[in-house]
Each structure stands twice: as structure tokens, then as C-alpha cells.
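Q: What would this complex look like in 3D?
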Amino acid sequence: MMSVASLLNRENQNKAMEVVRSQRKSSLPNDAVSTLPLYRSAPPLEVRLEDFEFYAIDRLRVLKGISDGLSRGKKPDEMEKLVYDLWKENMRHPQASEVVNKDIISHFVLRLVYCRTEELRKWFLSMETTLFRHRFLHENPEVQKALFAEFDLPYKVVSRAEYETVKDMLNQVARSIGQSTDAIFYKVPFEEVPELVAGRRVFIKEGNAYIAMSQVVSLVVTQFRSHLSKALVLTNRKWTSMIREQEKDRLTPIIEALSTSYLGPDYSQPTKHTDISLKDIDQIAKSSFPLCMHHLFGKLREDHHLKHGGRMQLGLFLKGMGLKLDDALAFWKAEFSPKVGAERFDKEYAYSIRHNYGKEGKRTDYTPYSCQKIISSTPGVGDHHGCPYRHFSEENLRAALTRMGVGNRALEDVLDKVRNRHYQLACTLTFEAVHGSSCDAGINHPNQYYNDSRKILESPNNSSNP
Amino acid sequence: MTREEVENGRDYMLIDGEDNAVPDGFNADYLKVYYGKLFPCADMFKWLSYGNDGKHPGCDQSYSGRREFSFTLDNDIYLRFQSFNTASELENAIKEKCPFKIDIGPVYSVDPSKRHAYSQGGDNIFTPVERELVFDIDISDYDDVRYCCSGADVCLECWPLMTVAIKVIDTSLRDDFGFSHILWVYSGRRGVHCWVCDGKARRLNNEQRAAIADYFRVYKGNENSNKKVSLMGPALHPFLARSYTDVLQGYFEKRLLSSQNLFLNEERFEKILEMIPDESITSELRGKWLSNKRSKEDINVVRWEQLKHLLSSKKGQGHRRCIEEIVFSFTYPRLDMEVSKHMNHLLKAPFCVHPKTGRVCIPIDPNKCDELDPTAVPTLSKLIGDLNAGGFIAEGDNEWDGTSFVQCVKYFKEYFLDPLLKSCKEEIETSYNAKVKQSRNSISW
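A: Here is my prediction, written as C-alpha cells for the whole assembly.
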């Protein structure tokens, strides 16, 4: 048996008081007791070692499911259903009294698992925040109000008199986003609700956003996110400074295994069996590049230029394939020189290529972009990066797929997925059409597309292909 | 130079799509004189110190020294992570290195020139902590809606697009977001930069910056999709509605429609007809325009009125929205989003000289942005000429006067710097007093 709190709260005794306080507060008002914890600090619960791991795996299944849903471009209402189903399926417990404990313990265990690198923290933060958002939305208004109160935010309801002065604008915003008008508004600094600002879903005046009661979730989620983000950095410090060493025979191996088993392979390290030679690259691009890279590659050949976003997306992909820095420099130089001249290439572009390989600037070894990142990018004028399934017009996409050799029937299936905004499924179907074999795992990463393609083409059974 | 080299050189310029001809007198010697006599180094440093160079106990003495400067030298050598503790350190470095370009980066958690010393401990604490909220707008991003120039070229026919951008963004930054210390700068060639310097703006995190940039984003086109702007919903957001009635509509109808000849020929009007989803309307208009009746009036105005008339005579919200979409497509600001979204993006300092045009990156008064003529801003050679004509000037003598450059520096100081420093001082005082009060309270419990 061990205590989660003793692991995480060791240095911070007054944290324990916080729990007591917030628990008392939420149990006070009425029947609207929430089952949604805010995870302010680790509770003093005893856990059996095997539960420690099982709970964490169950929660990971939920988070992984959310991650897949997001990268498939699911709409908010679809996400809500998905999250609800995932939660119900994985987070049950035979004893009703243990359900909340399982929730809390699994969350804190995963904090330990995912606190250890920037990349892991980012993923965990994003998935937990999404999870919290949908669980909050699923609660009834009374519970939502109680939770909102628990955050203890200093925001006031807009007074009647003030409401009258901005009423027209508030109604106009409501109409612009196709919502019915609300009567209760909170006035908060715009920085507190970035997602509402970004979507122009609120009226903003003199630095304040007027948010409707129905939008309070944004405010709560921002708070949740920023609290968790800070907590993860602290957890990381405790992990590196004490826990890892103290627990090296007991928890550390479990924790280190947990993070790798569920995040999928890491494409920041090029796969070993590949050794890409520049002379083969055209052939390989034709047979094994996903459409996004195929398109960038083609445009580069055609225009002898790509804007920044395209250079990053393609450049890191090539790096992930195993293209060495020297070869990368030679490749880009050969492509760019006809347009900008070799000298200007050396001056203006070589730096950023070395930068991608961690040889300049802050010397981070950059990771190739995942589908999720590519799908959510925003290509502008003159840009060719992004996900063709999402960013091309139907006409252009049809033409591009035809050039790739995707035939009638398959083509219509792909376009059908695109219309339903299942961009990665569209890419998966393209993969299947091009390779004439199935891809059960789905496409989540351009480098995965590439690796799977090479595996098929290089397998001995496939002698018809080069 | 052999004939071949000359040809190659010219080839290079053409393909580049830019006018690479170095203007008369852009050279290191002139630049040295400019940095020595004219560049307002002390005021720049004062600006970037935000009052922390004062004697008040609330000042953060390390603040200025944590700011990144980056110099691009004559031979394209790129010096990043320079930092300076005082105005004279900065001034000496500029005079000594004579950079062709000076970029300003964020204020970091530690002195950027010593960043490696701090990165040893495993935990990388070298991270940006403050940065002005910046915007970069390039006219080359408008190439699909201007016919007079392309690429890096600008003229008085297309420059109003930048004027529109300044007006729309400036108004919103002030009225919607409540910022008041905003500096607009001509970028020296093809666009404008905006620096929002309020304390609140400098402390925004990346997510909040991205939110503001997205709030401004309407244009969603890329090279592979047709629809450039789509305004959803049954009403426009108040910010867009205000921008439309106060700025976009007027500039579209009174300036750009005619100056860009938006309806001049079939190719051009087809581009606009593409934005109307109603087949019956487009074919009616196409028929009318192809029969090409001569008229004394401006053909662009005539055709636009016909289009508007036909669209508004039809029932349904979509048709009115369509008129707005066309106007937005041709006028609404197009921001370089990445520059605004991240704290660590570098941006060229005001009062630099653009090496390709020789023009000085002068501040623009947003209230008078209509008057800016990018082809007539002070150039390095002109300034040096004026200096020479003014006779010999003793070291440290500031009595040189007589060009628009002086007006620019004056604007920078009086309308931007002075009010900014005043509010910085107040902010430092307030937060200091609060801190003192807090510590007093905690003692007397």
C-alpha cells in the first residue's frame, strides 16, 4: 500500500488543507454534488500497487481515445458522445464508493507518467483538458454553477444597467454564432477566454469579454488548464529531484513503461532500416509519400521554392525518413538554387535546415509533424503545406488524387470521408487504394504512412514492385 | 565583369521578383553616418526599457539586459542573442558593427547572451517572458487582389490596402482590446509592422496572442482552395460589422474598385462572379457584361452597382452576405499569423534602413496613415545629402533640422514614447506600493 498524496505532497503540507477546504465547500450548498473533481492536490488515499497501474491504464485508454477523436477532426457534439462513452466504458469500478477515488488516483498517477518531457506534458495537458471540458458540459446547470463557484473567480455578473448599454452588441454576437441570446453575462478580461476570442464568439470592449452563462465552460477550462500546466512542471521537478530515485525499484519502472506503451511510436528518431539516398528520392516520393508530402515535393520540384510552412512540414518529414543533414542540405540546395541562387540559399535557407536538425538556435531536435498538427495548421497565400484532404478545394483534391492513381470507386470513398471531415480516414483509404492492401491501424502520422508503405513495397511477397 | 556574369546577375534579379538594384548610396559608410548622427538610439533604448532604467526602487534593473537584439551584418552574418545593459552599450555596438538590419526579440528569463551558462543545469530556464504584441502585414500577401504591382513592389494604387489594415487593426486594438500604446511602422519596403506595448500586451502568453491573431483572421485562402473568405452565420460579429461600414466598404467603393480596375475585363470579373454561388445571377451578369455596352462612366463602378443591385433584389440573407464577402476578400487585412502568435519571433526595429530600398522604417501615425506615401519616405541617401547640405555639424550637436525625418522622430517621442513612459512609471509605482503594502500586512498578522 502506498499513499498518492505522500508522493506528491511531501514538501507541501498546506496543500492538504486546501483539499479539506474545497471538499467542504462543494459538499455544502445543496444536492448538486459534483462527481467531477478539480484535482487541486493529491488526496491522502491509500492505493494498492496493482491498482496504481490498472487505474492508470484505464484512464490512458480514455485519453488515447480522445486523442484519436481529435485527430480525426470530430465535431464538438461527436466528441462529447465519444468522451462520455470512453469514460463509461473504462472508468467503472465494482464499488460505487471507489469510482471517484479511481478517477483521482489515475489522474495523479498519469501526472507522474506524463510530467517528464515537454512533449509528454503537452499531450497530457491537451487530453485532460478536453476530458474535463466534456465532463463539465455533461453536468447539469446546477452542478456547473457549483463547480464554477469552486474556482472562486473574481468575476461579477454584468449589472442590469450595463447590460442595457451593450445589449445590441451581445445580441449581434449571439446571432453571428447562431445561438439564442442569454440573459446572464459575466465580464472578464479577454485573456481569460482565449478560445472564445479566437472564434469571435464574444463581444469584447475595452479589454473585457462579455461571456454568456452558456460559455462559462471556456473560462473554467482555461483555469483548469493553467492550473494543470503549472502543476505538471512542479511534478516534473519533484520527479527528477526525488521520486525517480526513491522509487527506482518500485514505481519508476512502471511509470516509464506507461508513457511509451500508449503514445504510439516516436518519429523524432528516424527508423533504423531506412537509409535514404538522394538518387532514389523521386521514386520513393512517387510510391510512398502521403498526399500532403507528395504535393509539397511536387511543388518544390516545379517552383524551386516553398514558403516557410512547407519547408518545415516537408523538411522534418524527410528528416524522419532518415535523410541525413548533409543530404538534406544538398537536396534543398539543388532544388532552391535555380530560383534563388546557390549563394542566397547558403545565406538565407541553410540556417533553418540546420536548425531543424538541432544544429542552430536553441538546438532542439525538431520532431516531424503529426497529422493532427498538419490538419490544424492554417496555410495562407502562396502556401502549399497543410493537409490536402482538409485544405484543398474538392476540385483540386480530386485532381491530385487522380494523379496519385486513385481510381473512381476509391476516389468517391475518399471524398466522402473528406465531406464528413474524417481527414485521416480519407488518407487511410488513399493508402489502401494506392497499395492495394489494408491499413487497419489508420494513418496518424505522415512518417507512419511512409514506413507502412515501405514495409509493403519491400516485403518479399511483393515482387511486382521495385 | 564578363558578359556572362552580368547576364547571370540580371537573371537572378528577375527570378527573384524583386528590384534588387541597390539604390544610390546604400553602403556601410552612409549607414555609419546615419547611425552616428540620426538614429535615435537613446529613445529606442528608453522605449524598450519601459521605465526600468529609472531610480525607483520598483524598477527591475535586469530588465533591459535580458532583451534580445539581433544584428544582420553587411556580409549576411547573423548575430543573434545580443544584449545591452545601457543605451550607450547599444549605441556603441551599433556604431561599431554597423548592422544592415537590427531585429528586436523578446525579454528572456535570463540574459540571452549568457543563455548557455544557464542551460547546463538540465532544467532549461532560458525562456521568453515578455514581448510586445506584434503584427506584420505584407502587401505581397495581397497579390491575388491587386493588379498594379506584385511581389515586393508597391505603389500608390495598392498602398491603400495597407491603410485599410492599419485602420481596422488599430481601431480594434484600442476599442476592443483596450490597448493604448501602439506603434505603427513602415517596414521599409512592402508592408507595415505594429508594436503593441502596453504592459498587459507584453505579458500575454502564446495562446492569448494566437487568440487575438485569430480574432483578426477572416481570410482563409491558400493556394489550393477557391473560397478565400467565408462569413458564416446570420449576422456579422460587431467587430467585422464595424470594420465593414467604417473602413472596408468606403475604401473598396471609392478607391480600390477603380484604381485596381477590378471589373475591367472578363478574367477579372469572372474571379468575382466565382464568389457568387447563385448560378442564375452569375449568368445574368456575365451576359450583360460580355455584351459590353460602352458607357462614359467608370466600367468598374457600373458593373459593381449592377452586381449589388441584382444581389440585393433577391430574397435571402445569403445574397447580402455575398456582397460583404466580395468586399472582405478585396480589402480585409491579411496578417502574417506566425509573427503574432509566438513570443520569440524577431521583428525589425523601427528606424532601420531597408537595404534593398534604402528607405527608413519610419513610424506611421495611424490617424494620418492616409497621407503616407511609401515611395516618398526618407531614404538614406536623401538624409545623407540633406546632412551634407546642412553643412558641418559638430559632434553631439542636435540642431540639425529640415526634413521629414525630424518629424518622424518627433512623432515617435511625443505621441508614442512620452505617454508610454508616463504609464510605465505609474505601473511601476502601483505594483511597488502594492508589494510594500502586502509585505507590511504579512508582518503585522
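A: To summarize the key features: Strands of chain B lie at 67-72, 78-82, 101-108, 128-130, 133-138, 182-186, 191-196, 347-348, 363-364. Confidence is low (pLDDT under 50) at residues 1-22, 392-397 of chain B.
Q: Very helpful, thank you.
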